[in-house]
Amino acid sequence: MATELKTPELSRSAAAAFADKWKSYTDEKQHARGFWSEFFRALCGVDDEEIAGIEYEKRVKSTISGNQEYIDVYWKNVALIEHKSAGENLDKAELQARGYWLSLPPGYRPKTIIISDFLNFRLIDVALNRTHDFPLSKLPENIHRFEAIISGNRTRISEEEITVDQVAAKLMANLYLELEDHGFEGHETSIFLIRILFLLFGDDTGMWAKNTFLKLVMGTKEDGSDVGLKLDTLFEVLNTPEDKRPKALGEEFKPFPYVNGGIFAEKISVIDFNKKMRVAFVEVANYDWTTINPTIFGSLFQLIKNKEARRELGEHYTSEENINKIVYPLFLDELQERLAAAWNNKKELKKLRQDLAKIKIFDPACGCGNFLVVSYRHLRQLELELIVRLNNLEGSQDSIQLDGSMGLSITLNQFYGLEIEEWPAQVARMALFLTDHQENLRLERITGATHNRFPIKDFANIVNVNALETDWSSVLQADESTYVLGNPPFLGHKERNELQANDHTLVWQDVNASGTLDFVTCWFLLAAKFVSKSKSRAAFVSTNSISQGRQPDVLWQGLNRFDIKIDFAYQSFRWSNESSGQAIVTCVIIGFSAKNVDTKRKLWVRGTHEAILVEQINPYLVDGPQVTTPSRKAPISKSITPANYGSMAIDDGHLIFDAEEAAAAQSKDKSVGAFLSRIIGGREMLYNEMRYCLWLVSANPKDITNSSVIQERLKRVAEFRKSSSRAATQKLATTPGLFGENRQPSSPYVALAKVSSEKRAYLPADVFNSNVIASGSILTICSDSPAFDFAIVCSKPMSIWNSAVSGRMKTDFQISVEITYNNFPLPKIATQQKNEIATLAEKVLDARKSFSGATIAELYGDVSMPKALQTAHHELDKYMLSLYGLKVNATDTQILKALFEAYAALSDDMLI
Fold first, then answer.
1. What is the rounded distance in angstroms from the CA atom of residue 245 to the CA atom of residue 223?
2. Tell me: the pLDDT tens digits for 803-817?
3. Residues paired with 911 in a beta bridge
4. Maximum CA pair distance of the chain?
């Protein structure tokens, strides 16, 4: 039985020694097994091949030939290896290996195919359709690729390919910049670049004889004077059927086919090249575009656009790994399960094949088409597996027919996108067509047959419109086979431009407080309306802010009008991309459909670990009742003491002193010390930093008059307030010695920091006397039992509750009175219970005091929290959790579910 293999860090020196030893071996029959046995042992750390799941000469019945055949080396869940004698054709070996791979049942197919003839390696990432070739002598430089294959993590392998793709993108961007520098930009230049992109791929991927386009480019004059005219002629040729072309057409144009499809239909102005422009063009044409991933076109788009334009559009180019987080749960998992279940059933395979033809994929914010490209690639792969298997079961083993009854079901016509900008819309159309071409090449490699799509008849339905002003039903009619997906623009309500603000208002109209919602919610609302009229499903990426703080309540006021439910969700995670600059955003993924749609799959939520099956998913993307936490002016629980915010100076800093300034002020005027009070914010509380403020609430006017230090400070405060554009602030100029907003408690109080790191197990809080002033970055809770109030905010239930409902700034929690605190569902507490809780809280505070000089940040550090403090918190948590019927070892998921159930019990009027 195979066991999990620990991934070693493969040795470059061992790889060099291996390469040197095997460089003279050539015969497959005599030495292939020894080659791989030593490879596994010396380089991969495999001591026992059987335990590792490695088989030699693994039998497999070919679904293509119907014969019993043998895989040279099969490493379960890792790789399928085909080995040949030195000098044999690796392309034929790859065709053979891909046939074996297809013959394996779904679930037994490794992600990687490896081809070798001793002197050369070819590594094929089947899922990404990426190939990397290198000689045995370069094994040390490529050993990391095997390390990534063994670990099942393709990140290190893909980094180099991403770099290669970005080199291509930069070359294209350089060409664009040369055109722009010479006055060529706008619509016609976009059309020109898209055509060049098509020609570059066509030249390297078999659309016509290799390097035909390169020869034409290299045949132009060095000064570039004839480049524009030759390209203009070529564009016209590609748009003209062969039998209608001029007889006197130059030989360099004759090899090009009639393309059609609208790519070359529009007549554009001839671009006058010069020498520098031609050099940039030649560099692009000389690059090998064979394996470029069309999803990298998003990066190309970013490189061409300037930074400001990217931000305005909310552009975030997404990696294929992240796109799969939507594609798989939305539709691909189900289709793959159907294929596996129907593997030996011709009737069910045919039904699945018919259903594939009904699928429609729609991205209403498609950008450069990455989500559509990845979806198309996956569906073509699945259909290829289905066709090969069905062909075998039908008994037509000799050849695979790709026309008529066994034709391809998946076409570009099934893919739809809306995009407001012309250039990315053009890129999306081209990316999908080139992906189609790449899939046809793979089809040819596997089956020996291909599908001729010239002249082009099929194109994806990419519409250059504003999705927020367009009736989506006018683009496609949704049904149960329609899937809506994408990555709409990430913009907060303060970041929208005038057009976006108007669109936001148009979409949300009469929903209360909707103006504060992120721009991405417009797509959620329109998608909810779209899917509610059908049995279609949707899933979007969004910034995590829409599932935190104030937004869930407002968002679901709108979504609930369409009876929407959440089918699956990814909780907050870092969404990195493959573009230049590596934008990183904290995101969520939400899959949803109408409540009357049976997704036939269990609901799940995925956080930082594995997916968790749940009964229902609420707007905070956790297992719990369908409730939201609106902004409340008073606590929902009668057992909780009302909270308030700290005082706001509104002084431009003139009433505040750091320790050095306070000492200097008192040195100059000893009387100032009587009016300096310690002031705390979140940072001062966490790190015990000393800051002071002028607190003149009870000051005698004579004291102020006699102090030059105080007078100077108050003069600056008055000037600052007078200069404000707000009338209320201007009015405060008449009392410059008072805080603009005074909310200071009159007795001991609990201070709770408004901002807290997601890394802390407990919220930062402490108890202070009333002579310590709480600033605006503090929440204050004042009652006759500060210890009880402290226990509530510094308990595990409050920490878990905060993590679910509070808003965030980047990854830090933004704790509010109205959302976090006032909605905390504390059950009814009897007097005796309150006293017991306060006693446990006193033990926590006493444990803190026993470590003299230690700051709260140090006391609650990941590795520095003292055992005594841990024990005190454990006892408090045990008691607090018991109030919800939970044991102290309850998981965060269980705690959160119990909290939302308690909340629902307190807020029947808020059920959604």
1. 29
2. 888 877 666 788 999
3. 627
4. 106
Closest CA to 585 of 500, 665, 492: 492
How confident is the model at residue 457, as a pLDDT? 67
C-alpha 350/C-alpha 558 separation (Å) is: 41
Burial class of 912 by CB neighbour count within 10 A (0 to 12, 13 to 18, 19+): middle
- pLDDT higher for 597 or 221? 221
The pLDDT-based confidence of 162 (bands split at 50, 70, 90) is very low
What integer is the mean pLDDT of 865-892?
A: 94
Token digits for 600?
């036939």
428 close to 366: Cβ distance less than 8 angstroms: yes
Q: Which residues, other chains included, contact 336 with Cβ-Cβ below 8 Å and sequence gap of 6+?
A: 106, 382
Assign 425 to helix, strand or coil.
helix
168 neighbors 193 (Cβ within 8 angstroms): no
> Looking at residue 447, what is its pLDDT?
63
Which whole number is the average pLDDT over 730-735? 94
Asked if 295 contacts 431 with a C-beta cutoff of 8 angstroms, the reply is yes
Nearest Cα residue to 70 out of 33, 44, 38? 33
Say whether 289 sits in a helix, a strand or coil.
coil
| Eight-state DSSP code of residue 475 | T
Structure tokens given for 668: 């100059």
Indicate the SS3 state at residue 911: strand
pLDDT band at residue 291, thresholds of 50, 70 and 90? low
Instruction: With a cut of 70, say whether residue 840 has pLDDT above it.
Output: yes
**How far apart, in whole angstroms, are the C-alpha atoms of residue 375 and residue 634?**
48
In order of their start, the domains of the chain are 12-153 (3.90.1570), 161-292 (no CATH), 320-376+412-613 (3.40.50.150), 631-646+749-768+775-912 (no CATH), 648-742 (no CATH)
Task: For residue 591, give the H/E element and its range.
Answer: strand 584-594
Nearest to 651 by CA among 743, 714, 745: 714
Least confident of 132-136, 386-390, 633-637, 735-739: 386-390
**What sign does the dihedral 344-348-352-354 (CA atoms) show?**
positive
> Does the pLDDT of residue 158 top 50, yes or no?
no
Q: What is the mean pLDDT of residues 239-246?
A: 87
Spatial CA neighbour of 819 closest among 652, 632, 656, 678: 632
DSSP H helical segments within 448-548, as ranges?
Answer: 498-508, 521-532
Sign of CA dihedral 157, 160, 161, 166: positive
- Residue 307: is its pLDDT beyond 60? no
Does residue 58 contact residue 118 with C-beta atoms inside 8 Å?
Answer: no
What angle separates helix 521-532 from helix 551-559, to the nearest 10 degrees? Answer: 30
Helix axes 370-394, 90-103, angle to 10 degrees: 80
d(CA 139, CA 40): 14
Write down the pTM of the prediction: 0.75
Q: Please check whether residue 94 is in contact with residue 113, taking contact to mean a CB–CB distance below 8 angstroms.
A: yes
Q: CA-CA distances (angstroms) from residue 462 to 138, 298, 378, 419, 488?
A: 43, 15, 19, 7, 16
